[in-house]
């Protein structure tokens, strides 16, 4: 605990210095932008937090995220940044993540080519890692390194130094409120009886739906634009944690595990894929997350937003049968024979499951509680399925093969003799396309 307290203290002091312009760029100007270089848990949580709590940013810096190794991502970001007023955060638990390392090299080169002296890089470049010695070896000084530890899972790391970009965006006080909200949910999970334990009830609901609807996906629909990245965050949290087919003892699991998580913010989602949710042949449980807009709206869009969420949940549950569809058509002036022909197209089967989370107003406290709610749900599902929610070996095989594939594309190695014909053919085509640019 003393190490955690020290790390948070260092984050708070650093954030205040940046936000108050007591720590400036190499030419003395205030830091106006923060570029966070990281992927997976080093990006998704802070990105979600920065978007969700944007109303609390005040005069804090704008925070940008560079995760994808696609060169186009950095090219697009670079055009919007001034190197002299940009702070770069390299966030990598291992300090060896391939995408993060290469993106960091490109951004470091940009800083130097823009006139930032090597001796001034510490004003523009800091690192977050569980391996400070590797960050030191790459040239960072101790006061530019923010540590966390191996026992902090990457996708559970928002509360740690990985949350530094969020603290820079919203300030230490709001970040502490987020921590307090998470702690309140921690205490609820630890103490509430099972039948009133929110994370456990969510876990049991997902377990039940997977048993009743094997193969079904799970749609998460936040009726709050600021939470539009929540489905992407939950994809990693839940699918990387519990996307397992072997239990903790190495045996094949007896039950279907985590469903595919997906979604979009309401009401946008209603005009995109809700047709399939209501009338498609597959049944996919929906999780609604409803917030109450902080301020009354002159056009009453706040009421319309909440009404739409409630209506969608009711429509999924109750549906509309053939007789009701026919009667509605006749009531609207359609003649009886035409109504009979059209009615089948308007039938909604109903009996489609959904869960509703009432978050109230979106604040740092309620946001922290929401994220902790889903973290504990994920852990509870792991226990129920008897899988290890804290490893991700499924991610590693593709990484290993990518290293070999890159060497083949560069011509540094010949394709192995056991490569399948399809991959070998694609590799050759792509090698030609890359070399002919």
Can you characterise this structure?
By secondary structure, the chain is an alpha/beta fold. It folds into three domains: 169 residues, Glucose-6-phosphate isomerase like protein, domain 1 (Rossmann fold), CATH 3.40.50; 214 residues, Rossmann fold; 38 residues. The chain contains 16 helices and nine strands. The strands form two sheets. A five-stranded parallel β-sheet has the order 2-1-3-4-5, with helices on both faces. The protein has a four-stranded parallel β-sheet with strand order 7-6-8-9, sandwiched between helices. Helix 4 links the parallel strand 3 and strand 4. Helix 2 runs parallel beside helix 6, helix 7 packs parallel to helix 14 and helix 9 runs parallel beside helix 14.
Number of strands: 9
**Helix/strand order:** HEHEHEHEHEHHHEHEHEHHHEHHH
Going across the biggest sheet, name each strand in turn: 2-1-3-4-5
Instruction: Give the full name of the CATH homologous superfamily of the largest domain.
Output: Glucose-6-phosphate isomerase like protein, domain 1
Quickly count the domains.
3
Low-confidence stretches: none
């Amino acid at each position: 605990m003393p190490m955690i307290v020290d790390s948070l203290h260092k984050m708070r002091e650093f954030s205040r210095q940046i936000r108050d312009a007591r720590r400036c760029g190499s030419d003395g100007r205030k830091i106006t932008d923060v570029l966070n270089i990281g992927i997976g848990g080093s990006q998704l949580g802070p990105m979600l937090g920065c978007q969700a709590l944007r109303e609390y940013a005040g005069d804090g810096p704008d925070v940008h995220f560079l995760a994808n190794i696609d060169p186009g991502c950095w090219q697009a970001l670079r055009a919007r940044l001034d190197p002299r007023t940009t702070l770069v955060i390299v966030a990598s638990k291992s300090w060896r993540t391939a995408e993060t390392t290469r993106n960091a090299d490109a951004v470091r080169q940009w800083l130097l080519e823009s006139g930032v002296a090597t001796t001034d890089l510490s004003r523009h470049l800091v690192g977050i890692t569980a391996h400070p010695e590797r960050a030191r070896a790459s040239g960072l000084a101790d006061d530019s390194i923010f540590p966390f530890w191996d026992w902090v899972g990457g996708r559970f790391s928002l509360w740690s130094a990985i949350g530094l970009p969020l603290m820079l965006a919203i300030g230490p006080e709001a970040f502490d409120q987020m921590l307090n909200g998470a702690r309140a949910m921690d205490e609820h999970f630890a103490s509430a009886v099972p039948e009133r334990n929110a994370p456990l009830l969510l876990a049991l609901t997902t377990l039940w739906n997977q048993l009743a609807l094997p193969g079904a996906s799970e749609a998460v629909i936040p009726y709050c634009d600021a939470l539009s990245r929540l489905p992407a965050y939950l994809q990693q949290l839940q699918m990387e944690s519990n996307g397992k087919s072997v239990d903790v003892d190495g045996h094949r699991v007896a039950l279907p595990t985590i469903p595919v998580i997906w979604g979009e913010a309401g009401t946008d989602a209603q005009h995109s894929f809700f047709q399939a949710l209501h009338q498609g042949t597959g049944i996919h449980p929906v999780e609604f997350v409803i917030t109450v807009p902080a301020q009354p709206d002159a056009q009453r869009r706040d009421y319309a937003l909440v009404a739409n969420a409630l209506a969608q949940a009711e429509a999924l549950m109750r549906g509309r049968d053939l007789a009701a569809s026919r009667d509605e058509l006749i009531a609207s002036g359609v003649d009886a024979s035409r109504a009979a022909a059209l009615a089948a197209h308007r039938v909604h089967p109903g009996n489609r499951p959904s869960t509703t989370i009432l978050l109230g107003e979106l604040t740092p406290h309620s946001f922290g509680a929401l994220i902790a709610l889903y973290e504990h749900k994920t852990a509870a599902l792991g226990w129920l399925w008897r899988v290890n929610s804290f490893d991700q070996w499924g991610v590693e095989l593709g990484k290993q093969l990518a290293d070999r594939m890159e060497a083949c594309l560069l011509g540094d190695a010949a394709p192995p003799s056991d490569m399948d014909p399809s991959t070998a053919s694609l590799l050759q085509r792509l090698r030609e396309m890359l070399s002919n640019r």
